[in-house]
């Protein structure tokens, strides 16, 4: 089950007299994974460059049903063809993520790994770049992966819990059960961890996957 979000219309490229610090409107769309959304901000362009607001807290809370409790920001830089994922955090404590592309281009994937979720096993994909400045919200228990389509692609994350290496998990991004459509024209580069990651079925057998009800309990604390 999937919805290819790459067909979405880019944000309006409008020259605006709006002051540089004013928040720009933003639109939201639900993804095929329950509780996951893609947000597309308006981008203001003039002779100086651009201004946009990838995260707008009030609209986020209206859409998702709770605020985003940011306790840490992360970013990584990747060469063309670098594939990271499928990553998720042991729940509890779990980790929600708000992800956007700050430089370059990437194809981003969200995968529902929550046992008992109405969309368990479903995935969706979104084109991320610095033209649309789309962002993705991944609720607790949802897996994340992306492939960089250009050198020096920078992905930025706002996350709801601090990074703890012992709680970070990885699934095989080439698992036939998931069948994620990675670009065939790229020579892909993976970390040792991701290269040797287990399949979805094996993760389930080992008890690695989060339970949907536990994810909802963690999320209830964000209200």
From TrEMBL:
A GO CC term attached to the entry: cytosol
Keyword Isomerase recorded: yes
UniProt keyword terms in alphabetical order: Isomerase
Active site: 87 (proton acceptor), 157 (proton donor)
One MF annotation (Gene Ontology) recorded for this entry: dTDP-4-dehydrorhamnose 3,5-epimerase activity
Superkingdom as given in the UniProt entry: Bacteria
Feature type site, description Participates in a stacking interaction with the thymidine ring of dTDP-4-oxo-6-deoxyglucose: 163
Stored InterPro entries: RmlC-like, RmlC-like_jellyroll, RmlC_Cupin_sf
Pfam families, sorted: dTDP_sugar_isom
Coiled-coil stretches: none
Alphabetical list of CDD domains matching this protein: cupin_RmlC
Family according to the record: Belongs to the dTDP-4-dehydrorhamnose 3,5-epimerase family.
Name of the featured protein: dTDP-4-dehydrorhamnose 3,5-epimerase
Gene: rfbC
